[in-house]
UniProtKB/TrEMBL annotation:
Main location: cytoplasm
GO molecular function, one term: rRNA (guanine-N7-)-methyltransferase activity
Name of the protein described by the UniProt record: Ribosomal RNA small subunit methyltransferase G
Organism annotation: Rhizobium redzepovicii
EC id: 2.1.1.170
Length: 205
């Protein structure tokens, strides 16, 4: 199996397939993603989310903010299972979605745990981490605010944020409050979309 042009092992493929089946089952009763995107689950959500790990394929500790239906947090945790190292802390305050995430992690033997708490309170539970991810959560300025407790003063912590075609406006707005180093990774799945890699975050105001 290939995702975004890269080979995926049989074990990881089986985990992803099991996750997809679980997702479809739970999505019938819980609004995990926009219903209009369910028919394109593999490309729109699973392949898209897998890009985060493909960009940063290291066994680090992740904080996945606003994990929702598990994108990209559960997908990253599934890839880490093959490395037998690293961990994903999934932060999701909605208790029904948190229950789904716990089930998905358990049944796929993925390397992650769920924190059913507000993002603002999550740092106290999680502590230091090496990477932060978020997808369809907030604009870049808001994401940097959520990530600041982890990233400020910690040079080895990086943020990986999915963004759509309006990302340049979000970058300009964020630079009014923050200084940061930026790498733009073009999406292999969604035209005009990117994954923004943020490091060396500093607060301006």
């Amino acid at each position: 199996m290939e995702l975004n042009g890269l080979r995926v092992s049989r074990e990881t493929q089986e985990r992803l397939q099991h996750f997809a089946a679980l997702f479809q089952k739970w999505a019938k009763t819980i609004n995990l993603v926009a219903p209009s995107t369910l028919d394109d689950l593999w490309n729109r959500h699973i392949a898209d989310s897998s890009q985060v790990f493909q960009i940063h394929p290291k066994p680090v500790i992740w904080a996945d903010l606003g994990s929702g239906g598990g994108f990209p947090g559960v997908i990253t945790a599934i890839f880490l299972a093959e490395l037998q190292d690293g961990w994903v802390h999934l932060v999701e305050s909605n208790h029904k979605k948190a229950a789904f995430l716990r089930t998905a992690l358990r049944e796929t033997n993925a390397r992650g745990s769920v924190h059913s708490t507000r993002i603002e309170d999550a740092h106290a539970e999680i502590g230091r981490c090496g990477a932060i991810s978020a997808r369809a959560l907030a604009d870049l300025d808001g994401l940097l605010g959520y990530s600041a407790d982890w990233m400020l003063g910690q040079k080895d912590c990086r943020g990986f944020f999915h963004k759509g075609r309006d990302y340049l406006r979000e970058i300009d707005k964020a630079r009014g409050r923050w200084e940061f180093d930026l790498l733009e990774h073009s999406s292999a799945v969604e035209q005009e979309s990117v994954i923004l890699e943020i490091s060396n975050l500093r607060r301006l105001v």
